[in-house]
Amino acid sequence: MKTTFYSNGKLLITGEYLVLDGARAFALPTKFGQNLIVEDGINQEITWKSYDYDNRLWFEDIITFSEIINNPVTKIETVKTTLINILHEAYILNPDFINSSEGYKISTQLTFPKNWGLGTSSTLLNNIAQWTKIDAFTLLKNSFGGSGYDIACAQNNTPIVYHLEQNLPIVEITHFNPDFKENIYFIYLNKKQNSKTAINAYYNNKNEHLTKSIVENNKITEAILNAKTVKEFASALEKHEIHLSDILETRTIKENVFSDFNGVVKSLGAWGGDFVMVVSKENPSAYFASKGYETILTYDEMIL
Known about the structure:
By secondary structure, the protein is an alpha+beta fold. The chain has twelve helices and eleven strands. The strands form two sheets. Strands 1, 2, 3, 4, 5, 6 and 7 form a seven-stranded mixed sheet that branches. Strands 9-10-8-11 form a four-stranded antiparallel sheet. 39% of the residues are buried.
């Protein structure tokens, strides 16, 4: 018997970092995601294979049930030890998927290159939560940590506004289908950003005016959602970049790399890597390709 689970990837448009402290974040699920295929196995073990979008096998190993139950301590973090830790936390929440099984054959398949940063971990977590019948937000909290907006995107097929209230996830379905979608592009920066590293940097730089920063973020998020024209949308995005730049004490991506670009360039998620969102009156492909950035997707190509 074969069962397939699927989760959407994600892009965080507003509220990066501040979402960890209760700010309202606007996020979009992507047309790209990840499958988890589960079949019956033997020997009280899981044979695990992970495939990239092009069917290239990038990880393969055997995980025993005893490793999942005991979660042996290791100093070196590998793909296998990370998987064992996730499955151990799932086992604590619902032991039945181990106790009632002889074994499993599991394969995962991304529909995007894994270095794109669209949610390799969050889609995996949400798929494991679906399979083991546990709450994905709890599994995230007990394993990787983070705000959970990416789990909300994994579970929803529409734009969302997400925030934490007393550390509980609040997901609001929102409408975002602007007339100026054809002016929005997503450019891959040719490097994956480590979310854990970026979050640590945020906490180290977080200023004492956090409440004021969250109020400002929420105001900008509403302006972005309610923008009627591309000019209003672009202006709000620029305000957001300046606001985060002040908090993180970091120059914006446009200042650093694209200062001569005629349009808006906004970091998404962890600053410094993965994708940026570009708003431009003209198709900006030639400009970005000339600078070595050749992965350029339109709004309709990227977003559900």
